[in-house]
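Encode chain A's predicted structure.
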Amino acid sequence: MAAVEATSGSCPFCAIVAGLAPAAVVHADDVAVAFLDRTPLFPGHVLVVPRDHVVTLVDLPTEKVGPYFEQVRAAARAVTDGTGAAGTFVAMNNVVSQSVPHLHAHVVPRNRRDGLKGFFWPRTRYRDQDHVDEFAERIRSAWPT
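Encoded structure for chain A:
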């Protein structure tokens, strides 16, 4: 699949990228948009999506892989620093278990004994909008420049 400029269409992530759908955006540049997952594994769970609509990593043009993963790397730093986590889990599904068919990397804050085991994890919700805003600001503030 060829990369195309992100448009709202039927893709919820393209709608977020275009500013047409609500999201707790923690970083946006000409390469990618990073925002809090609405059903996080833990508070501070971020999704990093390329601005171009591509479905899988294989669809991302080679020249865009490096810049995209620079943003995933930055997200890992910001999530760790912004949440006070010991580290992060970075994951990407390609087709199987990919709930939204738009390439996205999950950057999940991790701590020892946090209960995350294997690949079957219970999802949670933020307590309220203040909880969302708090984690968005913490990660936004920690984003490397």
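Confidence is low (pLDDT under 50) at residues 1-6.
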